[in-house]
Design goal:
There is one protein chain. This protein is of the alpha/beta class and 305 residues long. It has 13 helices and 7 strands. The strands form 2 sheets. Strands 5-4-3-6-7 form a 5-stranded parallel β-sheet, with helices on both faces. It has a two-stranded antiparallel sheet with strand order 1-2. Strand 3, helix 8 and strand 4 form a beta-alpha-beta unit. The longest helix has 15 residues. The chain is elongated, with a radius of gyration of 22 Å. It starts with 11 loop residues before the first helix and ends in a 21-residue tail after the last helix. Bound molecules: glutamine. Glutamine binds next to loops.
């Protein structure tokens, strides 16, 4: 062959477009971003614009092979976050390890709601919150640590107790906390919330100012319809909420009623059907020892409650 003609198939630009087309043909979600993230990872770059700037650069045989391997994983529906082993969430670079739940765009809303609910500035200077004016947050089901670490990063007084039933998740939360420089403000505990609303382990803190959770809330009937990326690779314990999706939400509400200090809040991401169901359930339980009152429903990016 003519020197240069064959190898021109190996430029970054050619490899990007070859795999983007393949992903499209195979119905892979987000074909363009998938291949761009993979090639960026292989080439050791940081931003997509670096790829564009160097699009004429020839990839080495090793880089081509690695790109191939990783793109084949994407063809097999592995989420790109697991393929490249990291993901950025609110400016924090998080290590990602399967099957630990990958933070979703919607999870940002959860963080926003919590940040808005915490005391700030002046209010914080003379508030009565906790000792030494620390805000004690409990996160139930911390996964990779995205929510807790965002709260620590974005609110100077937040201290987190992060609980997860998965040892892999606990290790990942801890590792990500250390990498982000927040290890001193987080206490990671391997514990499980049972359906009767108790933890199998002490949490080292009597009361919390706020409890946050993105619990498993998918209704059993919706589990089958989850995309293969989720079904094949993510820990279903992070998603499966049982028949009505409330399997762990009810215990969360019960434990919140015990662990929250006066005027504390529980903030959860739930299924669109849940706000009404939860309101109803709380009012039915009023006769018992629940001390909670339903406060507000927020909407996600597609205006679902
Ligand atoms: N709808 C969410 C998802 O699949 C469910 C997450 C959850 O159960 N916490 O992304």
């Amino acid at each position: 062959g003519v020197p240069g003609v064959e190898s021109s198939n190996n430029t970054i630009a050619a490899v990007l477009s070859k795999w983007e087309k393949k992903f499209e043909d195979e119905g892979i979600a987000e074909p363009k971003d998938s291949v761009r993230n993979i090639v960026l990872h292989v080439m050791g770059g940081k931003t997509f614009s670096e790829l564009d700037q160097h699009s004429g650069v020839e990839m080495t045989p090793e880089e081509l092979l690695e790109t191939d391997r990783l793109c084949e994983c994407r063809l097999a529906r592995m989420p790109v976050q697991y393929i490249i082993g990291e993901w950025e969430f609110r400016g924090i670079n998080l290590k990602m390890v399967p099957p630990v739940f990958i933070p979703r765009p919607e999870t940002e809303i959860l963080v926003d709601v919590v940040i808005a609910a915490l005391p700030h500035g002046k209010e914080c200077d003379n508030c009565s919150i906790a000792e030494g004016c620390h805000v004690h947050v409990l996160e139930v089901g911390s996964g990779c640590g995205a929510v807790s670490l965002s709260l620590i990063k974005e609110h100077p007084k937040v201290y987190c107790t992060a609980v997860d039933q998965s040892t892999t998740a606990c290790r990942l939360t801890q590792e990500n906390a250390i990498a982000a420089g927040f290890a001193r403000r987080i206490n990671v505990i391997h514990a499980k919330l049972s359906e009767d609303g108790t933890f199998n382990k002490a949490l080292g803190q009597d009361k919390f100012d706020l409890i946050v959770s993105n619990p498993p809330y998918v209704l059993s009937k919706d589990m089958l319809a989850l995309q293969p990326e989720i079904k094949l690779y993510e820990d279903l314990r992070a998603l499966d909420g049982g028949v009505d999706g409330l399997r762990l939400i009810r215990p969360l509400i019960k434990i919140a009623s015990k662990l929250l200090r006066h005027k504390g809040r529980l903030v959860m991401e739930v299924d669109p059907s849940h706000p009404e169901a939860i309101k109803k359930w709380i009012s039915e339980e009023e006769q018992s020892d629940l001390r909670l009152k339903y406060e507000a429903t927020h909407q996600d990016y597609s205006h679902k409650p």
